[in-house]
Every structure is written in structure tokens, then in C-alpha cells.
Amino acid sequence: MRSDFPNLFVFDHPLIQHKLSCMRDKTRSTMGFRQLLREIALLMGYEITRDLPLTTQTIETPLCPMDAPVIEGKKLAVVPILRAGLVMAEGLMELVPAAREGHIGLYRDHETKRPVEYLVKLPDAEGRLFILVDPMLATGHSAVHAVDVLNRHGVKDSQIRFMALVSAPEGVRTFHAAHPDVPVYTAALDSHLNENAYIVPGLGDAGDRLFGTK
Ligand code: URA
After folding, report:
1. Cα(70) to centroid of ligand 1, in Å?
2. 137 assigned binding-site residue
3. What are phi and psi of 196, to 5 degrees?
């Protein structure tokens, strides 16, 4: 955690860093880009879930009964912000197949430049941890809006973790000004946003590179 960005966690694991560099390369194929994002999401998910509380359940092994550790409480919820978040969610769902998957679809209103919802489908909130995912934390407006949506559906900030592949300092500041208690987990804190709100050096348009669109 950096003192100038409280509640931001940058994963410096060599595998995550190497795979991210492969993704940034503009010659990477659509197939390679998707596969790498799934792999990084899985590795980041492993770190993000490290502190989940455990309880014990009595089971019978072939030799004897035992009190075996199992994750306490309700299943996790993975919530991608559409559409770029979908592939990160796939990686997380591979790691935690029993998780529930919600969806938040947002588009950018051309006049107000603000996010507008077009789809919200979420599991019940009570006692559940939500991992909200979007590969690029750029301006922070979509991320703030998505947490507002979760709040409206009864999910408290203390139940949410936000996972982004690449973040811009501007986006992290905007996000934490609105939701200081929601931790942000990212693989890189890049330099800045350009005049078109792209992250620099970044990796370009994550949605287009994931889905092979223009
Ligand atoms: N969204 C992207 O896909 N890329 C950026 O650099 C910023 C926002």
C-alpha cells in the first residue's frame, strides 16, 4: 500500500507483471490478450481472497472424521462492469466456481459524459462479499457509479473490493474521494490520463482488444 494512495494495493507478483507487459504489447493477438487477462484475474483473485474468514465443517475422510477448514459465510459475488469486466470475471469464476455472478452495464452519455445504467442484475446482498471488476480504472466515474449502484441494492462499502488491471492516479483519487473505504486492487498504477481519457502508457481500449472490435 502507498501512503499517497491509501487503500490502493498494487500487486508486484512477477507473474502478474510479466503477463501484464505481454498484454500491453500492441502486437498481442485478441486470443492472447483475453487469455492473459483471465490468467491475471485468477492470480489477483488469489491474493484478494487471502483474508477470507474460515470456519470448520465436520467431514469424513476415508480414514476418519475431521473438522476441516471451509470458507465461512455466503458465497462470494463477482460483479463485472460490462463489457470489459466480463473476461476478468471469467478468471475469478475459474478460481471460485461457486461464486454468484452479477452484472452492471453502463454506457457513457454523450452530453453529460457521465455513466448511465442499462443493465443491473445482482445476487442478494446480505452478508456477502462483492468483488467488482473492470480492467481499466481511468477517470473513475464508472467505478464510482457501479459502487453507487451496489449501495442502492443494499451492499455496503465494507462488503466491496474493487479490482482493476491498470489504474490511473486520477481515477484512484476520484474513486477514493467517493468511496474511501472500498479497497482498490490493481496490477499497475500508470502515469496519467491523456486528453481522450486513455491511460498512459496503458494498453489501449481494453474492450476492443478483448473482443476484437473497433
Ligand atoms: N478504458 C480503456 O479501455 N482504456 C483506457 O486507457 C481507458 C479507459
Report:
1. 38
2. yes
3. -100, 15
Predicted complex ipTM exceeds 0.90: yes
Sorted by where each starts, the structural domains of the chain and their CATH numbers stand as 8-49+77-211 (3.40.50.2020)
210: Cβ below 6 Å to ligand 1? no
205 lines ligand 1 (CB under 6 A): yes
The DSSP bridge partners found for residue 65 are: 60
Q: pLDDT per residue over 161-185, tens digit each?
A: 999 999 999 999 999 999 999 999 9
CA dihedral 50, 102, 161, 124 (to 10 degrees): -90
The answer to whether 181 is a known catalytic residue is: no
Please report, as a single letter, which amino acid is at residue 18. H
pTM of the predicted model as reported, rounded to 2 decimal places: 0.95
Residue 210 pairs in a beta bridge with none
